[in-house]
UniProtKB/TrEMBL annotation:
Coiled coil: none annotated. Its EC number is 7.1.3.1. This is H(+)-exporting diphosphatase. GO terms for cellular component: endomembrane system; membrane. The lineage of its organism: Eukaryota, Viridiplantae, Streptophyta, Embryophyta, Tracheophyta. GO terms for molecular function: diphosphate hydrolysis-driven proton transmembrane transporter activity; inorganic diphosphate phosphatase activity. It is an enzyme of class 7 (translocase). It is found in: Endomembrane system. It is a multi-pass membrane protein. The chain crosses the membrane at residues 41-61, 67-85, 124-142, 154-181, 202-226, 246-264, 343-367, 387-408, 415-436, 474-491, 503-526, 571-589, 610-633, 681-699, 711-730. It holds the Pfam family H_PPase. InterPro entries: PPase-energised_H-pump (IPR004131).
Amino acid sequence: MMMDEDVEQASLMSFNDRPRAFPNMRSKTYSPLIFRIIRKLNVRVLSIILLFCFGAIFYMGASTSPIILFVFTVCIISFLLSIYLTKWVLAKDEGPPEMVEISDAIRDGAEGFFRTQYSTISKMAILLAFVILCIYLFRSLTPQQEAAGLGRAMSAYITVAAFLLGALCSGIAGYVGMWVSVRANVRVSSAARRSAREALQIAVRAGGFSALVVVGMAVIGIAILYSTFYVWLGVGSPGSMNVTDLPLLLVGYGFGASFVALFAQLGGGIYTKGADVGADLVGKVEQGIPEDDPRNPAVGDNVGDCAARGADLFESIAAEIISAMILGGTMAKKCKIEDPSGFILFPLVVHSFDLIISSIGILSIKGTRDASVKSPVEDPMAVLQKGYSLTIILAVITFGASTRWLLYTEQAPSAWFNFALCGLVGIITAYIFVWISKYYTDYKHEPVRTLALASSTGHGTNIIAGVSLGLESTALPVLTISVAIISAYWLGNTSGLVDENGIPTGGLFGTAVATMGMLSTAAYVLTMDMFGPIADNAGGIVEMSQQPESVREITDLLDAVGNTTKATTKGFAIGSAALASFLLFSAYMDEVSAFANVSFKEVDIAIPEVFVGGLLGAMLIFLFSAWACAAVGRTAQEVVNEVRRQFIERPGIMEYKEKPDYSRCVAIVASAALREMIKPGALAIASPIVVGLVFRILGYYTGQPLLGAKVVASMLMFATVCGILMALFLNTAGGAWDNAKKYIETGALGGKGSEAHKAAVTGDTVGDPFKDTAGPSIHVLIKMLATITLVMAPVFL
């Protein structure tokens, strides 16, 4: 592929004479109520409100800890940088009118779906908040909470408030992710007419805006909640709550974020992939036209790709921060560390530095290139990899500085160095995960090319090869996670921190530090994740507006890289979810011990009821996956039938003489997504609560007081193990199938329209619900299960 301006201009001349059909789905644009209110405010009034809010935030930070002040400052600076990135992206041109029209249709569809979906989610969140309130009003308190004078009502209101705040912030994160995607895609499409590097830079900076806002919101949200509780409850003063117990009050925040993220991921995945499968099967296979061809009525894929990305990313960060804070407080309490604030607030500082170094990595990707010189298009993945390598180097430096600053204690002067090594283990683990995911999903490597070759012998061999590739891809990540957990635990255990009996206590916190190390470049990784849907939409806009082949080649290249980055970041998310779930599991056992006032450190699966709990946990993952994939299948069937009907009843569509009814397909997938997301989501929420209550009652009558808690622990343990393996399989197999199709579309094995291509399209349609619905939802599920058990722990006793 060569970038030649003269050739491109010549192709544009012939393109202008082609017949075109464009979607017309414009509707009134939608913004959430809070944004509409802000826009109506006078500038001076808004400035006064912002100054008041900033003053209150910094007052609480100053009253809590200088560390919190540092966190607030970095987060606000990152928000200012994100505003700069937004203005930079929006200043780019949107291209010709036909591109703008299609982009407007995508934006209106995404915003309309967002409004309907999040309206449904908010109603469910309010209902669940009421249930949590009722449960907490009748639950028992820990001895520490009773000693601090924290009554049941106060505990209930705090948990519900944290839950609703987490849900609200998660929803805002989802809106931010959608908002930037639907405005950046057309600008990437327009830039692709000039330069691949410029298109890449716009997509990266748009993704960077979303990533900085999402990570910044997760960090500042938890910091505000922590400092508010600290000041309000008078933490540290005589007769009040101890600071080491404060992180347990934050679990509601993580539960709220997980709740919204699960339903957003389910609904968005069903919406997107229902349309995508329908577009592929009827458009590509039956009619022989591209999925994004303007004659294809199934355009919901372009709409749905932009919806509900940010909520998932927000939840991932929030869950890991809270779990690490809980374990840091627990260890500091056992070791009787004089000032435990450094161990508790360490995760917030790590992510503050993450915002700084990831910003540098994002800005390191430049768009300048001499367009007058003929040269091959630079590999976008190599450009992104350079930015990631720079971010990794900076992460090692800042992480070491953070451990020396916050984790140094006179009781064990060398402990900070051990924890720095734990962080290095996490950083290396993250890099290995990225490499493994890239190896199994990028068509430059052997696995995807082998899968593409299998397509040349038929649809069946393509499916067999894809399934085997996905199964094989679980081995290296599991080995990597295993080595990371054991290494970090050993380093933490040998740090020199011991309890009053001389028993080493730093092991679990070592794994928490490794998790933070893995996530120390999260904002840059999330930037690559957001790059995927933006590039995908840009390709759709170019296809539907019938731009020259040279432009489509650039967007196809970006789209293929986007598939790889999405698979890479999903692998990264699964790895971090595995470590975080291990931490949350340990926090759950500590919380049960606190409520029951009995040591709870082991789960014996030789007890029949506990073993049954493990079976139920494993079954939950398979049943949830089945329902999620079946939901996409049913939605796709409706889309296929509708597209076939339109081609039969409107034969002029194929000759551009009649316009397809795009709105009908969008309505089908929107209605199906809202309907189908309820069942698997309700299964995920209800299962641990029902199992815990049933076995609590059984334990009461059989003389086993902790049976309910033990069975839930077993359920969580098995669900985490099976969930990690299932998510790795689904995400990698789906990404490999997609890129095998992309590889053939570059001209290999007969290119577009060949029998190998048709078989690869079949594989891609099978993989669509794997990688974009069930797979991403499972890694949210396993963390939500952990946060539910933390919130509901007293119910099981």
